[in-house]
Write a structure and sequence with these properties.
There is one protein chain. The chain is α+β, with helices and mostly antiparallel strands. It folds into 2 domains: 314 residues, Beta-galactosidase, Chain A, domain 5, CATH 2.70.98.90; 194 residues, no CATH class. It is built from 15 helices and 23 strands. Strand 21 and strand 22 form a beta hairpin. 38% of the residues are buried.
Amino acid sequence: MDKKSAMAMLLILMLWMGYFLFFAPKQQPGQPNSGQDTLSVSTGKKVEAPSAAGRENFPEIPSRQSVSIADTSAAPVDTVIVSSDLYEYSLITRGGILTRALLKKYPAFIRKGKRSFDDSQPVQLIPTEESVFLNVLLHLKNSDKAVDLGKFYYEASTKRLALGPDNKEGAVTFTHRLPGGKELKLIYTFHHDSYLIEAQLYLPAELHGPKENAMEVLLGPSLVSNEKNPKEDYSDYGIIYYDTGEIVRKSLSDLGKSDWAPSGEHQILWGGVKSKYFISAFFVPDAPMTAMSASGSPVNMNLFFRGKFPIPSTVSPVNFSVYVGPQSYEVLTKLDFGFQKIFQYGWSIIQPFCKISLAVLLWMHKWISNYALILVFFALLVKIVFYPATIMSTKSQIKMQQIQPLLNDLRVRYKDDPKKLQEETLRLYKEHKVNPLGGCLPLLVQMPVLFALFYVFQRTIEFRGAEAFGWIHDLSQPDPYYILPVTMGATTFLQQKLTPTQTEPKLMPMLYIMPVFMTFIFLNFSSGLVLYYTFVNIFQIIQQIYINRVHPVPAFSPSGPAAGKAVKSEASAGPARNKKKGLKRK
């Protein structure tokens, strides 16, 4: 492929990626405010609650049985703290609501200056004073109003639970005594090496009869942003759920303030709220949800997810599980339940490259702690894998250079007959065994990898805050001093200069324009992606120097049938034309 075609392909690539940088819609943060519909939580503050709109998509809900479940108690609100090496969760005795989720392995980024951040504190995901995470509502037959268990006061079996290698699993029981001596029990089970919380709700036997009885679990409002660029984080706020084997995402702008619910029949295994790197989702291990709804406000960043499922008709605990943690490929793949499908980046044709690239990078991290060094080795690995394609491309470019005089002759001779020019050009390619597209082969096979890494660095939590070297303290963020993008542009220019090609004067400006254009586009890309591409160029330069020595471009000497026909055609063109072209008749 000639330089003009190669530049055009690179231009298309950069424009496509530039769209995500300059034109992708961004959500704007706002200040929280209170709505008219409220749910009261333990702190006394009020938060905008799910409205009644959209309830028509739910099954008809129903019945308070002969048992009274009115909450007549009033007690001080205590906090239960559960901790392990991974997390520290806080739940309050009013409603058993989750009010705090510290993830110890992930730092929160608190801005100290223009380019500096305090990362000494761990991520805290839950809006402490507004949380309705794990708030449970009961919908009973013939009852117009749901029973809000989030307003009930419970007695906790313990106020502190510490887990570790010697105490791998533990449970906290929340008990609420109903009038008449009956009890509600809510048991949360925790694991020292997992962000998964398993829940069991024990209800009075009278509530297990009617099939219409159901319970609803709430998650909201949103997750707290802990990122260096909150605006970028907010652009990823939304709900996500797993429906009939497929991942469905809805952004804040898709939801609006009123309740939204999917229409038609669904098999929703799990769902929840997400930010760029973290997610809180719940699911029922025994059966899919019977209904779900969500609401959100782009103004105050409130976001609620509600999933509904039936209360068992037989007397047994109602089981559900909640995940509050990172969108980590390794963690969610082990969790299964379809959570691994969250990592579906970009077009379907790119997704396999994303998964392979991510798997290789994480595998290399088992032996190399620094991701910057991993990217250098990954770039080297890519060049080794694609070396045969590079050799094929180089040979194709050399052949194109060799037959360039013949091609120029055909263009002059058949300048007024495009069809004949095309036929003769194809014949020339065939006789000299030249593939005009062979020169673009390395570019074509490496483009999916570049696209894949673009998504991987933009979305993968393993690169969040990944220390690199010197002035690069986070591979997921742009280079603050633009040193890497400029270096990348310079190596791109040098690599182009070393690549054998038929150089035409009119194409020379592209040799200078394209590296400048790419530098400009890469300025605000993640430094990890720019570092990778820079070293791909460096290894390509080394490789090209070697190839140029082993496969030098020989001087062109017309021979064979094509050459004979070309010379014969020139001779028949007449003395005047031969004189002009400087050719001798034979």
